[in-house]
Amino acid sequence: xxxxxxxxxxxxxxxxIPKGTLAKVRLTIRPGGFDDASQGWxxxxxxxxxxxxxxxxxxxxxxxxxxxRRKIFTLIGLYSPKGPDWTNMGRSLVxxxxxxxxxxxxxxxxxEAQAARRISGFADLDGIEFIARIxxxxxxxxxxxxxxxxxxxxxxxxxxxAMGAAPSLGQQQSATNTAPAPQPAAAPVPGxxxxxx
Length: 197
Description:
The protein is of the alpha+beta class. It has helices at 85-102, 111-116, 159-163, 169-172; strands spanning 22-30, 34-36, 41-48, 54-62, 71-79, 129-138, 144-152.
């Protein structure tokens, strides 16, 4: 008997990204059509659930590395009739996302950092790229699923490597001028238009 007749020794494939993995992700907000202008929730981004809870329905796509193109679905709490915990967790995640995306230390309380942590609306979050710490939670059926509960900020030792970009607002102040020497331009490829060179 070959391996295509007996599946007793087949490995289970839960297809989960390991807990604690750092990954650069892009947030896409799946619109729920719920607005409450008194809260600043406009543009149809928020979703109101059957329990009365309000959240952003987040689809986080890993943009590079081993898990590139994988999607993680996480709700970002805006309001819960049960109390402030859901709201506080959501606000904490958004603050971390902004710090991570904009290169701001969580401890930075300068006017520039405070301004960078403000948004004009949820549209500012749609498409934001940041470093996430992948976690594992459970879905409605009780099965394991990946979640994003926190963002990694420049304070973390692996932030710069995971972000893979030039230092941002918070890092520029302390960075020294250690730019690499310019590389010679690649030779043009025959048959390619100038814009694709």
